[in-house]
Protein 1
Amino acid sequence: MDSFSELIAKRRSMRKFTDEELTQEQVVSLMKAALMAPTSKRSNAWQFVVVDDRDLLKKLSLCKEQSAQFIADAALAIVVAADPLASDVWIEDAAIASIYIQLQAEDLGLGSCWVQVRERFTASGIPSNDYVHEVLDMPLQLQVLSIIAVGHKGMERKPFDESHLQWEKIHLNKYGGK
């Protein structure tokens, strides 16, 4: 990448992956990015579960009624969780770490997609958070925000088209700007 602007234009959600595995260096780079994410009062309330086991990836792909099936085909899933007792802004901190992972994936030429877990449910009505806890044997105090699926891109997507920017959503000095 030549610039941050190019990176954010190129990063698009990827739901199709090749069968190629990630290298250890790629996984380490992704996790370094997560660990460098800023947190409120440097609480570092987040925790990350890195999953590359095919059976576990398939189970995680069932964490939601819809929109998570592609996890089964990803080379890696990174479960982003945090301890609400360690920080009252754990959701924001975990969200920042999640997007850092996605930006690092794009910088490495990999594809990624965010799977929302918090406040979602499985097809049978079980809270997605509880389901992920059961699959990965996670401590109860951790709350799962997201799962970031990562892998080699299985399709090409065009960069974000700046003609679709919604400039009307920007307000100067006050809402409405008048």
Protein 2
Amino acid sequence: MANTTIYDVAGAAKVSLATVSRVMNNPEKVNPETRDKVLQVIKELGYRPNAIARGLASRRSTTVGIVMADVSRASTSQLLGGIIDIAKKYDYAIKIFSMSEHEDIKETMRAVVAEQVDGILFLNDELDHDQMEMVMNHIKDAQIPIVLCNVLYGEDIPSVSIDYEKATYEITKELLKMGRKKVYLFSTVRRYSVNSHKVKGYSMAMEEAGLEPLVFRTSGDVAVNKLHFEEFLKNYDVDGVISVRDSIAVSFMNEAIKQGFDIPKDISIVGLQNTKYAILSRPNLTCVDTPVYDIGAVSMRLLTKYMKHEEVTASKVVLPYQVVERESK
């Protein structure tokens, strides 16, 4: 049968996806009668016979699936750097799966499971609650270990991140203590899981100071947000900016300078990433340093523990952050 998937095998053998996976990866854990039935179906359907033979004979190499949305963001490339460096130490194979909010999520997850990955690092922070529920249900059915990498969702899903709410709260308080009153948070029109926590921390600090939260949503596309900021600076009074992305902060800074504002005398600007854009800007951008490389590396180590069935003392890992003072604040 052409393009036979693990779903076809499970359906024909009348067993779960997890049972098919165990037959291929840990056959000794399956009772002989069931194992023989599944192997017979695999043979009849012609489901990846070479890969199965390798797995049963010599144990196939560990494969980690990385599910992501957009590789073009600077933070994503740094995350991948940390993940891949640790994966190399363990000699893992990496398979990358692209999943946008507009794609068929069920089909994407079927493809991930069908590739027989041993674990999943989930980097896609663009999905809403219902879409994430759909993803997690597929992973639960397949019994594949998963770690959310810089994605915030659910209390019972292993994850690695920083405390974005606290970080944004503290940097907002810092700007307010400097005497800034019209402090805006620049976020994105598209909703990301971590950005909602940044908005929450910022809003809490503003409300505690008796000020109205001022959230301005723009595009991650520089060509688009440049036009937004041209109009923004003509129509809004602003003396402080905190941006969920460094690229957005720098785009705003460039337009503000073009319109005659002195940075940081007139407007303090802070990024919430500390990517390469921060040191390429003039003046250099002050940032809350999100250690995305470390988040990637720690996520891979945490997933390794789950794949090896080792003891995990904390399924939710929150890494430290720091403020990198430069010239824009």
Protein 3
Amino acid sequence: MLSRVAYSLYWMARYVERVENLCRFLQVAEAMALDAGSRADDIWLPLVDACGDRALFDAGGRGSSPEAVADFLLQSPHNPSAIRSCISLARENARQIREVITTEMWEQLNTIYLRLQEEGELRSLPSHGWLGQLRRDCQLFFGITDSTLSRNKGWQFSRIGRLIERADKTARILDVKYFLILPRQEAVGGMLDQLQWISLLRTAGAYQMFRQNTRKAISPTGVAGFLLLDEHFPRSVCYCLNGIAAAVDYLTDQRSDRDVELGRFLALLRSRWCTSRFEDLISQGLHESIDSLQAGLNTLHCHIEARFFTTAAIPRKGAVPAKAETIQRQGVA
């Protein structure tokens, strides 16, 4: 398979997964705002932090109102990770590999793109129904992909892109709640704190599975442990890393130095996030552990890019890799 084809499949899946996650974030924020009363505005700005785009948002000088945050995440031309931008980039990647993906995949992605174009710019907060429809459109795209695309190298690259993006967003939204919007000490365990943890589970589509699998009261450690370390829930970090490892095993034969390097790095990530006890992560500081995870996911992206897409050098140990989502902001190279 040509590296440019693999690159497009990888980023096409990442962008669609990102849109689905952003729709989740906005839907849950709208629901939380109804319960937050006078603190409703505090619900919205952390969504920008969860996407890692706070500096870009602040540079726009647009304030922190719900409308400003929603506009930035949905359609701002200055935000390359906005929903409209991601759909455009996903479609551009798909357009360049039409001969590789299935007709059904192209038609679904093109339908999403054209509908957004026809609707034009939104002038107010997007409705819950509008976001739900877009989220279902993205889920339908992945369902079509899984039911029509052969389980060959192309599907594996699509899977890797999707799971890296998912793991990153799960970690980010958890970090935002745990570190950036921790309630005042007197509010810990209070009604708003409880609602925020429930909303975090809903953001990850994890509320029902958490209830069924843990059968415990909702607690910060229980929620964090489930979203990070559960090996069966499809949006947990552990599940995503296991899926990435399976795809990498399919794509590599461990004959080259870069195969070995990629395999070793991925094994280190999995040993930390699939075999550790949650108490060990807490003892090291959960915020610091999640920061390390996000840096690890970016470095994993760099390893994958260097092995399959380019001849780029891997960041040295201790160096901070470039944020992965900045790498393909202008479409396919």
Protein 4
Amino acid sequence: MNHKEFAMKVIETGIEGLLIIEPKVFKDGRGHFFEAFSERDFQILTGRNLHFVQDNESESCYGVIRGLHFQQPPYAQSKLVRVVKGKVLDVALDLREGSPTFGRHLALELSGDNYRQLFIPQGFAHGFAVLSDSAVFQYKCDNYYAPSSEGAIAWNDPDLGIDWKLPPESIILSDKDRNHPLLKDIITPFKR
């Protein structure tokens, strides 16, 4: 297969396994078209033989921060995330013990206008902040949601240094997301 035939481009981020996916978008006077996901292209370009089993969607208003969430093994999840409408700052945090980037995060703007996606492998915490009036956020998971395996890191852990691009007075959190532990206070369930 010729590389020009792929429906997407994969960009490395500097954190092993964390990948930016840019689909090819075809625009004309009618609007646009793109393949939001091609299992064949994804597997060839990333070298990962994943099977996504669940698609999730959320809609949130400006100022909402969701995260930083993860599921512990054996229910850990890889995710492929994207924004259908609006704009978010998407954040993935490396929780893999032994990783040279343990405790580092990537913050990436995803929007309905830039079509970018982020592939987040197992071993990362994930969250996002809504930067537009509202945002529709979709993600694929390679494992089913298991409430008993939920884990999380405080969104405002000072050691992480995440700039959520929101004024403090605009931040909206769930009660649950207000009370997560700091990274230094957990034993990570992920090994590299």
